[in-house]
Amino acid sequence: MASAEQASEQAQPVALPQILPPFRRLARHNLPLLLILPSLLLAIAIIFYPFFVIVRLSLSNVSPFGQLRGFVGWANYAGVLADPIFWGALWRTLVWTAMVVGGTALVSMPVALVLQQEFYGRAIARTIIMLPWALSLAMAGILWAWSFNANYGMINGILQNLGLISGPIQWMARADTAFPVEIGIGILVSIPFTTTIFQGGLSSMPTEIYEAARIDGASASQQFRYLTLPLLKPFIQIAIVLNVIYVFNSFPLIWVMTQGGPDNSTHILVTYAYQLAFSLGRPGPAAAISVLMLAIVLAFTMLYLRMQRETP
Amino acid sequence: MKRKLRRSIVCWLVLLPLIVLVLFPYAVMVSTALKPTSEVMSYPPRWLPRHWSFASFPAMWVQAHFGTAIVNSVVISCSSVLLALFIAIPAAYAVGRLEFRLKPPYRLFLLVTQMLAPVLLILGLFRMAAAIPFGDGSLVNTRLGVILIYGAFQIAFSVLMLSAYFAAIPRDIEEAAWMDGCGRIRAVWHMFLPLAVPAIAVCALVAFVAGWNEYIVALTMLRDRDKQTVTLQVVNLVAGRYSVEWNQVMAATLVATLPVAVVFASLQRFLVRGLMLGAVK
Predict the structure, then answer these.
(1) Averaged pLDDT of chain A
(2) Which residues in chain B are contacts of A11 at CB distance < 8 A?
(3) How many angstroms away from the CA of A68 is the closest CA of chain B?
């Protein structure tokens, strides 16, 4: 290390140390800190400062145009807790997150197991299954909204041709169909990421133990139940926690497809908070919901960090 | 050989439903984009148009201000990539190569930052942008504001991903350069960075796609049509309209997504590896 520093002194242009001796001393002793400093500053300015702006908003009386009109304590929070649409959105957020994350894990597991096999065309299959990753959620929302269009959409067309329905179904205009459709699409777009994590786990597994199990006469399902699943557990946990955070935050699908409607029946917390803030002119309650969401995300982040420490 | 063939058939059969679902929207997109307006509005819909028509492409180009939108998307995505790389590369070098006492808390800081999506902070971001004077007004409704936000939100992911790659580049090469009397900065510039180019390229591409596909920040910040990105313009063809020209919308979606999908598919292996390194490490 000492020789390296001497070497770096020789190679420096002469002017720099004379002009900036304090900077140079700082650079030599705190090089890592200087290197990470810009990233800290930008992240604090653009990520942590808005966080405090939101907390302050949530404790203030805010006019529809955004002026602060004094401190009101917990009034915004109390208002939110008294709002039935908030409770509906909260409940739907739980359903949305649980169904999408759970459904994604259930579909991704067999897909990852199959992609781990050697078969003809595996590279093509893998590429196709990864494809939704390249599609923005907003575009996916548009494509599926058109596919589920009641009058001219392809889904109704196919069902009609198969004789499964007698007339067009108003998928996105009905409360009992719009949200399940969105959950299904949420699952579809979360599969690439989850499958990739599972595949990472599967490919890190020692092959010898499978051979040993086969010699001992374990069936394929026994191998899965007693070898694959326990060994994959840390990967499943990480996939689930990360997906909980991503899906909880997922805004564009629902916003593009239904904007929370019909009659607030597809709002989750992010879409409702956005509507309150930017369409309904109620930034105070929107900020209160944002603070609640941030608390939930941070709690799951802590869970994720603890898991990371436990996985070798 | 025969066993592999049988296994291949079983594997494809198991994957088939998912593959159909993944390809379905793309098929709908192409099918609708090539129909004339009269055929789009007929029930039940057909997959193949009776009369092939490319008229929806020039029509949407005008409707969605597509030329301007592409320029905006390219400018915003490229600038935010440059900003993120400029800030993330030194930090990733420190995390991947150097030992320092603040490394564990810094990594924690990155992991927490990565989980805070713009949508959670959008209200605060908007108010902050509105409070910063720029030109005649504020940072709201400027491409610069969006670039700064995209860049900042890419940093945590970029540092985590690049540092994982950087740590894998052999140290000897750099140390050999020091022995030859090369300064640390020159050693990094001439020996280390050339080896890191593939990793940086993957990182840049991931950040570019993220910027290209981003919706909520663009929706909130960019009010004027001549500043809006492709993603936003395409959604605007649908959102809040009484009558939607679906063939134009699908033509616009096709032009906006196909380049990204092709790049992603051809570089899939590298991209997926990079995405995982940044997301799960």
Answers:
(1) 88
(2) 181-183, 185-186
(3) 11
Contact check, Cβ <8 Å, A128/B23: yes
How many domains would you assign to chain B? 1
CATH of the domain at B104: 1.10.3720.10
Q: Please report, as a single letter, which amino acid is at residue B23.
A: L
The verdict on residue B143 lying in a domain is yes
What is the architecture, at CATH level 2, of domain A83-310?
Orthogonal Bundle (1.10)
Residues of A in contact with B130 (CB under 8 A): 66
Check if the beta carbon of residue B29 is closer than 8 Å to that of residue A139: no
Residue B55 lies in a domain: no
Residue ranges per domain, chain A? Answer: 2-58, 83-310
pLDDT tens for each residue of B88-121: 999 999 999 888 989 999 999 998 998 899 999 9
Are B123 and A54 in contact by the 8 Å Cβ rule? The answer is yes
Domain span at B83: 65-242+250-280
**Token pair of A240, please?**
């689930």
Distance CA A277, CA A146 (A): 28
State whether B43 and A168 contact (CB < 8 Å).
yes
**Structure tokens that stand for A75 in this block:** 């009034």
Domain contains B22: no
Q: Which of A39, A51, A149 sits opposite B159 (nearest CB)?
A: A39
A271: chain B residues, CB-CB within 8 Å = none
- Range B234-239 contact pairs with CB under 8 angstroms and sequence separation of 24 or more: B234/A138, B234/A139, B234/A142, B234/B64, B235/A138, B235/A142, B235/A256, B236/B64, B237/B60, B237/B63, B237/B64, B238/A142, B238/A145, B238/A256, B239/A256, B239/A259
Residue type at B176 in one-letter notation: A
Least CB-CB distance to A152: which of B40, B108, B130? B40
Which residues in chain A have Cβ-Cβ distances shorter than 8 Å to B124? 49-54, 57, 290
The answer as to whether B154 is a domain residue is: yes
pLDDT band at A8 (very low <50, low <70, confident <90, very high): very low
C-beta of residue A85 within 8 angstroms of C-beta of residue A273:
no
Question: Which residues in chain B touch residue A255, judged by CB atoms under 8 angstroms apart?
Answer: 215-216
B249 contacts A142? CB cut-off 8 A = yes
User: SS3 of B100, please?
Assistant: coil
pLDDT tens, residue by residue, B36-79: 988 988 878 889 998 899 999 999 999 889 999 999 999 999 99
Distance (Å, rounded) from C-alpha B49 to C-alpha B37? 11
